[in-house]
Amino acid sequence: MADTRSFDDRDGSIWMDGKLVPWREANVHILTHAMHYASSVFEGQRAYGGTIFKLHEHSERLRRSASILGFDLPWSADEIDEACNAVLAANGLTDAYVRPVAWRGSEQMGVSAQRTRPHLAIAAWEWGKYFDPALAAKGIRLDISPWRRPAPYTAPTESKAAGLYMICTMAKHHAENRGYNDALMFDWRGRIAEATGANAFFVKDGALHTPTPDCFLDGITRRTVIDLARKRGIEVIERAIWPEELESFQQFFLTGSAAEVTFVGSAGPWNFEVGDLSRQLARDYDDLVNRRQV
Fold first, then answer.
1. 54 an active-site residue?
2. Which candidate in 160, 172, 204, 231 is catalytic?
3. Which terminus of the chain, N or C, has fewer Cβ atoms within 10 Å?
4. Is residue 114 domain-shared with residue 211, that is, in the same domain?
Protein backbone atom coordinates (compact mmCIF):
# COMPACT_ATOMS: atom_id res chain seq x y z
CA MET A 1 0.00 0.00 0.00
CA ALA A 2 1.32 3.44 -0.91
CA ASP A 3 2.42 5.70 1.94
CA THR A 4 0.02 8.65 1.94
CA ARG A 5 1.62 10.56 4.81
CA SER A 6 2.83 14.10 4.16
CA PHE A 7 6.49 14.16 3.19
CA ASP A 8 7.32 16.51 6.06
CA ASP A 9 5.95 14.15 8.72
CA ARG A 10 7.75 10.83 8.47
CA ASP A 11 10.19 8.78 10.48
CA GLY A 12 13.77 8.35 9.33
CA SER A 13 16.80 10.46 8.51
CA ILE A 14 17.74 12.93 5.79
CA TRP A 15 21.32 13.90 4.93
CA MET A 16 21.64 17.67 5.05
CA ASP A 17 24.81 19.71 4.50
CA GLY A 18 27.13 16.96 5.64
CA LYS A 19 25.25 15.10 8.34
CA LEU A 20 22.18 12.95 8.93
CA VAL A 21 19.37 14.75 10.72
CA PRO A 22 15.94 13.51 11.89
CA TRP A 23 13.47 13.62 9.00
CA ARG A 24 11.13 16.17 10.60
CA GLU A 25 14.03 18.52 11.37
CA ALA A 26 15.33 18.75 7.78
CA ASN A 27 14.00 22.27 7.21
CA VAL A 28 14.99 25.53 5.50
CA HIS A 29 14.04 29.13 6.21
CA ILE A 30 11.04 30.72 4.49
CA LEU A 31 13.38 33.29 2.89
CA THR A 32 15.54 30.69 1.20
CA HIS A 33 16.51 32.04 -2.22
CA ALA A 34 15.47 28.84 -4.00
CA MET A 35 11.86 29.18 -2.82
CA HIS A 36 11.53 32.66 -4.29
CA TYR A 37 13.72 32.49 -7.39
CA ALA A 38 13.86 28.76 -8.29
CA SER A 39 17.62 28.52 -7.72
CA SER A 40 17.51 24.81 -7.08
CA VAL A 41 18.53 21.61 -8.88
CA PHE A 42 17.77 18.01 -8.08
CA GLU A 43 18.15 14.37 -9.07
CA GLY A 44 15.83 11.38 -9.01
CA GLN A 45 17.34 7.92 -8.80
CA ARG A 46 16.23 4.45 -7.83
CA ALA A 47 17.83 1.82 -5.65
CA TYR A 48 17.29 -1.83 -6.54
CA GLY A 49 18.32 -4.47 -4.01
CA GLY A 50 20.34 -1.93 -2.05
CA THR A 51 22.25 -0.53 -5.05
CA ILE A 52 21.45 2.90 -6.51
CA PHE A 53 21.40 2.51 -10.29
CA LYS A 54 24.03 4.64 -12.06
CA LEU A 55 24.53 6.64 -8.87
CA HIS A 56 27.77 8.33 -9.94
CA GLU A 57 26.24 9.60 -13.19
CA HIS A 58 23.44 11.17 -11.18
CA SER A 59 25.86 12.77 -8.72
CA GLU A 60 27.95 14.20 -11.54
CA ARG A 61 24.83 15.58 -13.24
CA LEU A 62 23.70 17.22 -10.00
CA ARG A 63 27.00 19.07 -9.75
CA ARG A 64 26.82 20.03 -13.42
CA SER A 65 23.24 21.28 -13.05
CA ALA A 66 24.21 23.51 -10.14
CA SER A 67 27.18 24.88 -12.07
CA ILE A 68 24.94 25.74 -15.03
CA LEU A 69 22.76 27.76 -12.63
CA GLY A 70 25.87 29.54 -11.39
CA PHE A 71 26.58 27.94 -8.03
CA ASP A 72 29.18 25.26 -7.36
CA LEU A 73 28.62 22.52 -4.81
CA PRO A 74 31.44 22.02 -2.30
CA TRP A 75 30.83 18.27 -2.32
CA SER A 76 32.48 16.07 -4.94
CA ALA A 77 30.51 13.48 -6.89
CA ASP A 78 32.19 10.77 -4.79
CA GLU A 79 31.09 12.50 -1.58
CA ILE A 80 27.54 12.79 -2.89
CA ASP A 81 27.60 9.08 -3.77
CA GLU A 82 28.69 8.29 -0.22
CA ALA A 83 25.95 10.46 1.26
CA CYS A 84 23.26 8.83 -0.90
CA ASN A 85 24.35 5.39 0.23
CA ALA A 86 24.43 6.57 3.86
CA VAL A 87 20.82 7.75 3.57
CA LEU A 88 19.74 4.42 2.11
CA ALA A 89 21.43 2.54 4.97
CA ALA A 90 20.22 4.89 7.71
CA ASN A 91 16.61 4.39 6.64
CA GLY A 92 16.94 0.63 6.21
CA LEU A 93 15.94 0.76 2.53
CA THR A 94 16.89 -1.57 -0.30
CA ASP A 95 14.32 -0.75 -3.01
CA ALA A 96 13.72 2.97 -2.90
CA TYR A 97 13.64 6.32 -4.62
CA VAL A 98 16.49 8.68 -3.72
CA ARG A 99 16.16 12.46 -4.05
CA PRO A 100 19.26 14.71 -3.79
CA VAL A 101 18.38 18.41 -3.99
CA ALA A 102 20.73 21.40 -3.97
CA TRP A 103 19.77 25.04 -3.54
CA ARG A 104 20.85 28.56 -2.75
CA GLY A 105 20.26 29.55 0.86
CA SER A 106 18.80 32.52 2.73
CA GLU A 107 21.91 34.67 3.12
CA GLN A 108 20.67 37.14 0.50
CA MET A 109 17.22 38.09 -0.81
CA GLY A 110 16.60 39.50 -4.26
CA VAL A 111 17.29 38.38 -7.81
CA SER A 112 21.03 38.57 -7.22
CA ALA A 113 22.37 35.67 -5.16
CA GLN A 114 26.11 36.24 -5.08
CA ARG A 115 26.33 35.98 -1.28
CA THR A 116 24.17 32.90 -0.82
CA ARG A 117 25.63 29.59 0.29
CA PRO A 118 24.97 26.34 -1.57
CA HIS A 119 23.14 23.64 0.35
CA LEU A 120 22.53 19.95 -0.31
CA ALA A 121 20.04 17.49 1.13
CA ILE A 122 19.35 13.84 0.28
CA ALA A 123 16.22 11.90 1.18
CA ALA A 124 15.05 8.38 0.31
CA TRP A 125 11.75 6.57 0.61
CA GLU A 126 9.93 3.51 -0.64
CA TRP A 127 8.20 4.29 -3.90
CA GLY A 128 6.64 1.74 -6.19
CA LYS A 129 5.88 2.08 -9.88
CA TYR A 130 5.34 5.64 -11.10
CA PHE A 131 2.21 4.58 -12.99
CA ASP A 132 -0.26 1.92 -11.88
CA PRO A 133 1.18 -1.40 -13.17
CA ALA A 134 -2.15 -2.68 -14.49
CA LEU A 135 -2.68 0.55 -16.37
CA ALA A 136 0.88 0.71 -17.66
CA ALA A 137 0.72 -2.87 -18.94
CA LYS A 138 -1.82 -1.86 -21.57
CA GLY A 139 -0.31 1.58 -22.17
CA ILE A 140 -0.99 4.88 -20.45
CA ARG A 141 -2.97 7.71 -22.06
CA LEU A 142 -1.23 11.00 -22.78
CA ASP A 143 -2.87 14.35 -23.37
CA ILE A 144 -1.14 16.97 -25.52
CA SER A 145 0.27 19.64 -23.25
CA PRO A 146 -0.76 23.26 -23.84
CA TRP A 147 2.73 24.28 -22.62
CA ARG A 148 5.93 23.72 -24.55
CA ARG A 149 9.54 23.07 -23.61
CA PRO A 150 11.48 26.35 -23.87
CA ALA A 151 14.27 27.11 -26.30
CA PRO A 152 17.80 26.60 -24.92
CA TYR A 153 18.51 30.30 -25.37
CA THR A 154 15.64 31.16 -22.98
CA ALA A 155 16.26 28.72 -20.12
CA PRO A 156 19.04 26.47 -18.71
CA THR A 157 17.63 23.40 -20.45
CA GLU A 158 20.74 21.25 -19.89
CA SER A 159 20.27 21.54 -16.13
CA LYS A 160 17.86 19.47 -14.05
CA ALA A 161 16.63 22.73 -12.58
CA ALA A 162 13.54 22.82 -10.39
CA GLY A 163 12.15 25.89 -12.16
CA LEU A 164 11.93 24.03 -15.48
CA TYR A 165 9.40 21.64 -13.93
CA MET A 166 6.78 24.29 -13.22
CA ILE A 167 5.21 23.81 -16.67
CA CYS A 168 5.51 20.04 -16.22
CA THR A 169 3.32 20.20 -13.12
CA MET A 170 0.88 22.47 -14.95
CA ALA A 171 0.80 20.13 -17.95
CA LYS A 172 0.31 17.02 -15.81
CA HIS A 173 -2.50 18.61 -13.81
CA HIS A 174 -4.17 19.75 -17.03
CA ALA A 175 -3.96 16.20 -18.37
CA GLU A 176 -5.17 14.52 -15.18
CA ASN A 177 -8.11 16.91 -14.93
CA ARG A 178 -9.11 15.78 -18.42
CA GLY A 179 -8.89 12.08 -17.56
CA TYR A 180 -5.39 11.37 -18.93
CA ASN A 181 -2.41 9.90 -17.09
CA ASP A 182 0.24 12.33 -18.28
CA ALA A 183 1.00 14.76 -21.10
CA LEU A 184 3.17 14.78 -24.19
CA MET A 185 5.03 18.07 -24.54
CA PHE A 186 6.16 19.70 -27.76
CA ASP A 187 9.16 22.03 -27.91
CA TRP A 188 9.07 25.72 -28.78
CA ARG A 189 9.29 24.85 -32.49
CA GLY A 190 6.32 22.48 -32.33
CA ARG A 191 8.39 19.29 -32.44
CA ILE A 192 7.88 16.30 -30.16
CA ALA A 193 9.94 16.77 -26.98
CA GLU A 194 9.09 14.54 -24.00
CA ALA A 195 6.45 13.77 -21.39
CA THR A 196 6.30 15.78 -18.16
CA GLY A 197 9.09 13.78 -16.53
CA ALA A 198 10.26 11.16 -19.03
CA ASN A 199 11.86 10.88 -22.46
CA ALA A 200 9.98 9.54 -25.50
CA PHE A 201 10.74 6.64 -27.84
CA PHE A 202 8.79 5.47 -30.89
CA VAL A 203 8.96 2.23 -32.86
CA LYS A 204 8.53 2.04 -36.62
CA ASP A 205 9.34 -1.01 -38.76
CA GLY A 206 11.70 -2.46 -36.17
CA ALA A 207 13.69 0.75 -35.60
CA LEU A 208 13.67 3.05 -32.59
CA HIS A 209 13.11 6.78 -33.10
CA THR A 210 13.66 9.35 -30.35
CA PRO A 211 13.71 13.17 -30.34
CA THR A 212 17.10 14.87 -30.29
CA PRO A 213 17.52 16.26 -26.73
CA ASP A 214 18.50 19.80 -27.68
CA CYS A 215 16.08 21.58 -25.32
CA PHE A 216 15.37 18.94 -22.67
CA LEU A 217 17.44 16.50 -20.62
CA ASP A 218 19.24 13.65 -22.31
CA GLY A 219 18.09 11.34 -19.54
CA ILE A 220 20.31 8.73 -17.91
CA THR A 221 17.57 6.13 -18.43
CA ARG A 222 17.21 7.34 -22.03
CA ARG A 223 20.88 6.69 -22.72
CA THR A 224 20.68 3.33 -20.95
CA VAL A 225 17.78 2.17 -23.13
CA ILE A 226 19.59 3.34 -26.28
CA ASP A 227 22.58 1.22 -25.25
CA LEU A 228 20.33 -1.79 -24.59
CA ALA A 229 18.64 -1.39 -27.97
CA ARG A 230 21.94 -1.16 -29.85
CA LYS A 231 23.23 -4.19 -27.97
CA ARG A 232 20.32 -6.11 -29.51
CA GLY A 233 21.11 -4.75 -32.96
CA ILE A 234 18.10 -2.42 -32.99
CA GLU A 235 18.65 0.70 -35.07
CA VAL A 236 18.30 3.87 -32.97
CA ILE A 237 17.58 7.11 -34.80
CA GLU A 238 17.84 10.39 -32.89
CA ARG A 239 16.20 13.15 -34.90
CA ALA A 240 13.59 15.89 -35.00
CA ILE A 241 10.11 14.35 -34.86
CA TRP A 242 7.00 16.32 -35.84
CA PRO A 243 3.50 15.60 -34.50
CA GLU A 244 2.14 14.64 -37.93
CA GLU A 245 4.58 11.70 -37.92
CA LEU A 246 2.97 10.08 -34.86
CA GLU A 247 0.34 8.30 -36.92
CA SER A 248 3.13 6.36 -38.67
CA PHE A 249 4.62 4.90 -35.48
CA GLN A 250 3.45 1.51 -34.21
CA GLN A 251 4.71 1.70 -30.62
CA PHE A 252 5.52 4.41 -28.07
CA PHE A 253 7.14 4.22 -24.65
CA LEU A 254 8.61 6.56 -22.06
CA THR A 255 11.84 6.26 -20.08
CA GLY A 256 12.97 7.83 -16.81
CA SER A 257 14.37 6.94 -13.41
CA ALA A 258 10.87 7.21 -11.92
CA ALA A 259 8.90 5.92 -14.93
CA GLU A 260 11.52 3.29 -15.84
CA VAL A 261 10.14 1.94 -19.18
CA THR A 262 6.44 2.77 -19.47
CA PHE A 263 4.29 1.83 -22.46
CA VAL A 264 2.02 4.42 -24.06
CA GLY A 265 -1.33 3.38 -25.53
CA SER A 266 -2.34 6.78 -26.88
CA ALA A 267 -1.18 10.38 -27.15
CA GLY A 268 -3.88 12.84 -28.07
CA PRO A 269 -5.59 11.41 -31.18
CA TRP A 270 -2.81 8.91 -31.95
CA ASN A 271 -2.98 5.26 -30.82
CA PHE A 272 -0.16 2.76 -30.33
CA GLU A 273 0.22 -0.94 -29.61
CA VAL A 274 2.26 -2.43 -26.79
CA GLY A 275 4.51 -4.48 -29.04
CA ASP A 276 7.29 -7.02 -28.75
CA LEU A 277 10.16 -4.57 -29.18
CA SER A 278 8.89 -2.31 -26.38
CA ARG A 279 8.30 -5.30 -24.11
CA GLN A 280 11.79 -6.66 -24.80
CA LEU A 281 13.49 -3.39 -23.92
CA ALA A 282 11.38 -3.10 -20.76
CA ARG A 283 12.53 -6.60 -19.75
CA ASP A 284 16.14 -5.77 -20.59
CA TYR A 285 16.00 -2.63 -18.47
CA ASP A 286 14.42 -4.50 -15.56
CA ASP A 287 17.10 -7.20 -15.80
CA LEU A 288 19.87 -4.59 -15.90
CA VAL A 289 18.76 -2.56 -12.88
CA ASN A 290 18.19 -5.75 -10.89
CA ARG A 291 21.61 -7.04 -11.95
CA ARG A 292 20.30 -10.01 -13.87
CA GLN A 293 22.02 -11.14 -17.07
CA VAL A 294 21.16 -8.98 -20.09
1. no
2. 160
3. N
4. no
